Amino acid sequence: MKENQLARRYALALFSVARELNLTKKVAEDFNQLITVIKQHSDFRTMLNSPVIPAYKKINVLNSLFSDHMQDLSIRFMTLLTRHEREQYLELVAEQVGVLYNEFMGIVVVRVTSAVPLSKGNRDQLLEQLKETLGNKLELQEVVNPGLVGGFILDWNDQRYDASLLRQVKELRKEFQENLYVRQF
Q1: What letter does residue 88 receive in the DSSP assignment?
Q2: In the prediction, which pLDDT does 167 show?
Q3: What is the CATH number of domain 2-104?
Q4: Cα–Cα–Cα angle for 50, 1, 104, rounded to 5 degrees
Q5: pLDDT at 90
Q6: What are phi and psi of 153, to 5 degrees?
Q7: Where along the chain do its domains lie?
Q8: Do 117 and 41 contact (CB within 8 A), yes or no?
Q9: Residue 183 class from Cβ within 10 Å (0-12 exposed, 13-18 middle, 19+ buried)?
Q10: Burial class of residue 114 (count of CB atoms within 10 Å of its CB; 0-12, 13-18, 19+)
Q11: What was the pLDDT predicted at 45?
Q12: What confidence score (pLDDT) does residue 180 get?
């Protein structure tokens, strides 16, 4: 929890500077790119988290990888965190920058978890209903979890709508465990 709070504070500081310089979209794209690199290359994540590798080598790697593709503000921010031995939080900060950008732009990110991938018709119908409820700016993220058996789960803005078969079975099991005919004092 403390890491998330720390990452949020760093992201807020970066985002406020980016707003002043009208670079919010570019900085958000830069940190989205950073997340992609971290998730796709475990060696890069290991290098960032390694206490054995000195900060100047990490800064050189960051500059060589990203200096041609990112804003100067993003590079300077990553360098600052690395100099102060906070590079292990870069991924969390990058995620928080994305969250702040979505909040700034009024975009609601909705994660749909289902047992099988959604068909185009189901996806379009769901998007239409969500737009009526939540507004026009939506970003839909699909996750497949075969453990749900059927149905779906919607997550957005710390809210959840669970229409999964798994939840319904659990509720039935709980109801059957209660014996309604025996008095309990």
Answers
A1: G
A2: 83
A3: 1.10.520.20
A4: 100
A5: 94
A6: -130, 130
A7: 2-104, 106-177
A8: no
A9: exposed
A10: buried
A11: 93
A12: 66
**In contact, 115 and 146? CB cutoff 8 Å:** yes
Contacts of 12 (CB under 8 A, 6+ apart): 96, 100
Mean pLDDT by 10 residues, the chain (185 residues): 86 95 95 94 93 94 92 95 93 94 89 90 89 84 86 86 84 78 65
- Contact assessment for residue 32 and residue 94, using Cβ atoms and an 8 Å cutoff: yes
Q: What angle do CA 29, 31, 36 make, to 5 degrees?
A: 95
The token pair that represents 95 in the structure block = 């995620």
CATH architecture of 106-177: 3-Layer(aba) Sandwich (3.40)
According to DSSP, the β-strands at 159-162 and 152-156 are antiparallel
The whole-number pLDDT of residue 169 equals 83
